[in-house]
Design brief:
about 0% strand; Homeodomain-like domain-containing protein
Length: about 55
């Protein structure tokens, strides 16, 4: 998640190109573009896994 903030800061404040950011962070240009287009940090939601006790019932 901190990579997205770093990408946005480098592009909008430091005026680095997408290719330069992608090379320095070892990310694809597509990933960098996606981070620049998004308004907010992505939220990862885990599915609730059943516990072994739930399976016994």
């Amino acid at each position: 998640m901190e990579h997205i903030a770093e990408i946005r800061r480098r592009h909008f404040i430091s005026k680095e190109s997408i290719s330069a950011i992608a090379n320095s962070l070892s990310r694809s240009r597509q990933t960098v573009r996606k981070a620049l287009r998004s308004d907010a940090e992505p939220i990862y939601q885990r599915k609730i896994q059943p516990t072994p006790n739930d399976l016994v019932k």
